[in-house]
Amino acid sequence: MAESMDDIAADFLVEARELAERLGEELVALERSPADQELLNAVFRGFHTIKGGAGFLNLTPLVELCHAVEEQFGEVRAGKRVLDPELCDGAQEALDHVQRMLGELAAGQALQPAPEGLMVRLQRSETGADPAGAAPRAMAAPTHPGAQASRRSLEATREVPVETTIRIDTRRLDAIVNLVGELVLARNRLKTLRGSRGDDEVDRAIAALDVATTRLQSAVMKTRMQPVGRVFSRFPKVARDVARAVHKEVDLELVGADTELDKTLVESLADPLVHLVRNAIDHGIEPPEVRQRIGKPRAGKVILAARQEGDHIAIEVRDDGAGIDPEVIKAKAREKGLIDADTAVRLGPEEAFQLIFLPGFSTKTEVSDISGRGVGMDVVQSRIRELNGRITIHSRLGEGTRFLIRVPLTLAILPALLVHCASRVFAMPLASVREVLPFQPGQLRWVDGREMLDLRQQPIPLVFLRRWLGEAEREGAAHVVLLITGDGPLGLVVDQVRGREEVVIKPMPRALRKVKGYVGATLTGDGRMALILDVDALARH
Q1: Does residue 7 register a pLDDT over 80?
Q2: Which residues 6+ apart lie within 8 Å of 48 measured at CB?
């Protein structure tokens, strides 16, 4: 019986968290369109459904809170109360406590009731009468979720669609993904061997296996795909709360919420995007009176957009605020001792923007609940790097700022560029590669004692992979792989470029785990081990 209740609680948590995330978006939309009856009904049903499941599990604090909100929205539906700012603020605060209680349930902790003051505010009528003097309302008795569903079906009369999905433990999916990864490695190995055999029947069999493996790989990866809307749905509430806290007016626009990527990535991107949206509102968007004075709309605009670009996902956070002044950034970095005066003079605008990601950097003069502690953007960049992704900044003074994140569709199989150096094979994430070109010694320049590549009148720092490995120089042709790193462009000089290949990421061999400069290992099509380079470590070198 206890195991059965645990399963019911687990199912309730999944559904309730999805409902709570959706409620955050719906409450913001309802506040903007208070006459929208469908939105009002959706909010009412959301709290009602959570209350029903919580009642079945005897989660009294959650039942009481959802009931208080539900009652007030029921009054609005019945035309007995107007959807006023007090109710909107109370519902948003109640939703915060609903999410907090769900977290406590997930952690096996006792649910702490909502503050008494919030419950009183929720029960206060629109005319401001104290609920203590009013006749007490009887609380609806909690019922089994199935009974709630039956009652709802009698009401928002549509035919209930047949269930077409099932819930699967993600560990089972991970095991399948790992097995497909091994199959991909075997496929790559067979494709490499095919050319040396010269047997038509073997060639046809391997070609058929190649097609089947590719289709299987795609199908398995899709089972782990989720729309980024799962993350985006929480941001209308985030934007509303931050805008209220800093006394600004902001319209948040969501674009491409149906774009899909790996479940692990969806979850991992949540915190970095929260930082970026909060910063866009707090640092980017000007106060309403300032915007009005300079000819902009009082309400600033923040756009959170996602789109697929080949085997990568691009996510951007864009605002129409004041933009970033590179000189202010450099001055703040000098003030905090993060760079010296000589370095500040040499930095161009794009390089100055990268200073934002330094630990301890902040342009705020006062510490608040929103920002000013110098913690946030460095964490954002570190998290994106862990996902084999990149983040870049584009900004124009007076026009706004755009943060662009590019991450692979999945973390299990990585599109990579393979290169040879000193008789060894190395791989690097394809997302970090801008272009490949032959190395011309005549383009070599020395700037401040460092070798630079003069590429289209732009100096690019060079790293010779042979030197980095401690190997002797060699004569003959070489190539430069132009990389995009967190510290700007970098040219990596290698002996030979082998080409693109999808690689399965494996943990580093135990003997090499403490060696800096590598993020993992893989097996290539010819059966050799290739280390995956950490391009940011190369740039810092």
Answers
A1: no
A2: 66, 70, 148
